Amino acid sequence: MIIHFKKGTDPARIDQLTNRLNGLLVHLAGDTRLITSSKIKSPPTEFADIIDQFFVMESDIQLAHKTYLNRRTIQLNDLTIGNGENTHLMAGPCSVESWEQIDQTAAFLKNLGIRTLRAGCFKPRTSPYTFQGLGEAGLEMLVKIREKHGLNIITEVKDSTHVDVVLEHTDIVQIGTKAMYDTSILKTCGKSSKPVLLKRGFGTTLQEFVQAAEFILSQGNTQVILCERGIRTFENKTRFTLDLTGVAYLKEFTNLPVVVDPSHAMGYRYGVPDLTRAAVAMGIDGLLIETHPAPEQALSDAAQQLNFDEFETMYHSLEPVARAVGRTIV
Ligand code: PEP
Ligand code: MN
After folding, report:
1. Digit-coded pLDDT (tens) for 162-202
2. Which residues in the chain land under pLDDT 50?
3. Partner of 133 for a Cys bridge, out of 13, 48, 123, 261, CB 3.0 to 4.6 A?
4. Does residue 93's CB lie within 6 angstroms of at least one atom of ligand 1?
5. 74-329: which CATH architecture?
6. Sign of the dihedral defined by the CA atoms of residues 296, 302, 303, 304, in that order
7. Cα–ligand 2 centroid distance for 152 (angstroms)
């Protein structure tokens, strides 16, 4: 249940009700809201005088649910994500590998008209013996790239050792498929005002996924983007299975912008353009696509990154698909 209080309510009574219901007080854009477990279906009658409105919720998808609020948008400098009119294309290599590699990629994307560069510096690898990312040195390169090319930057956090430094420098922070269960990362990002792109864990139900978003929202940061990047199924010919049915669910029942990442779902470059068009045809708020100047030499996710020619061909094929569903690629 989400409770709105009458203006000027004595904070002591709000505290009493919070304790009584074991709830969480949330401060959202100057307003105080009390959020309780969704199992509670009505407020105690003796507090009726301080309650302006209350929303009974079906599950603990609460702040993110469409029945509470229809739409939440993200402001990325001059760009609005999630307004139902555009599909924001974020692209770049899996990892920052060198100045030349990231500079070349930024120049290529900028020239196509793409406004947000995505690249990882703190990589959550499945083996300790592979490239782990350039860490802070990579982040410094991204900061310089942003200045040089005038692009927005999105980069990921993988654990709590570097959340603060990433939050300080990036325009959007990405929380990856493995880090999405880390409530300390979620809460720290929730206390920030930076937009957060939260990826769905590959073994995560939609309920668990959106509840992870609730950890961020309930700390006061309402700029949360949900990202479907493939889930693990019995199928092993492809790296993961892109859950577009899940995307339909998220669009129908949540108020958060939905982004699709076909690169990590597919795992191989051959399927990425088709999956991208399929996702755009659903009317989504954004895309995350991996591209690299020489994918075969990439230090992470080499098999799935598009080379620049492949990326450009795919990019030009998106506009008519987007137009057919009333969207513009930005
Ligand atoms: C990535 O975006 O490069 C990445 C590691 O993604 P995921 O967390 O979806 O595996
Ligand atoms: Mn990757």
Report:
1. 999 999 999 999 999 999 999 999 999 999 999 999 999 99
2. none
3. 123
4. no
5. Alpha-Beta Barrel (3.20)
6. negative
7. 18
